Amino acid sequence: MSTHPDHPLSGGTPAGVSTGPVPVTLSAPGRAPSESGTGTDTGTGTDGGGPPLRSKVTATLAVLACAACCALPLLIGAGLLTGAGAALAEQTLLAVAALLIAAAAGMWWLHRRRASRAVHTTAAAGSCGCGGNGCGC
């Protein structure tokens, strides 16, 4: 154990050092937290990596189409659909689900591409540039 008054184990507090709680931010460096304070994506594309809200909604609709397709045997058993009607509904629901999944993936890909392009544009507009001695940052 140290006997120096400024050592943390000695019980003394160095002059000018606060003993209160230390504030910690949970956002990535250089990024402001979301306006709502929840840290969740609001669909504006500010999250940097997660899917946008429109992509999440589209994927949810695809899941609902799949669930409806799985419910077809129950509808046949209840007498609400015939075998031919269920076959047609099944093919239609599978096609709709596949299109919705493709659309959700496409929207997410475009979101990532635009976010990546914005990061590269911001970095290129910084203090880096080509000088007389060559390029470098």
Write structural notes for this entry.
- This protein is mainly alpha-helical and 137 residues long.
- It contains 3 helices and 2 strands; from the N terminus they run H-H-H-E-E.
- The protein has helices spanning 53-70, 72-77, 83-124; strands at 129-131, 134-136.
- It has a two-stranded antiparallel sheet with strand order 1-2.
- Helix 1 runs antiparallel to helix 3.
- The protein is elongated.
- Mean pLDDT is 73; it is low at 33-45.
A few lines on this structure:
With 137 residues, the protein is mostly helical. The chain has helices at residues 53-70, 72-77, 83-124; strands spanning 129-131, 134-136.
Helicity range: 40-55%
Q: Into which percentage range does the β-strand content fall?
A: under 5%
Kindly name the structural category.
mainly alpha
Outline the biggest β-sheet: 2 strands, antiparallel
- The number of helical elements comes to 3
Shape: elongated
Q: pLDDT under 50 segments (min length 5)? A: 33-45
Could you state the order of secondary-structure elements as H and E?
HHHEE
Separation of the first and last Cα atoms = 47 Å
Mean pLDDT comes to: 73
Evaluate the radius of gyration.
Answer: 28 Å
Strand order of the largest sheet: 1-2
* Total number of strands: 2
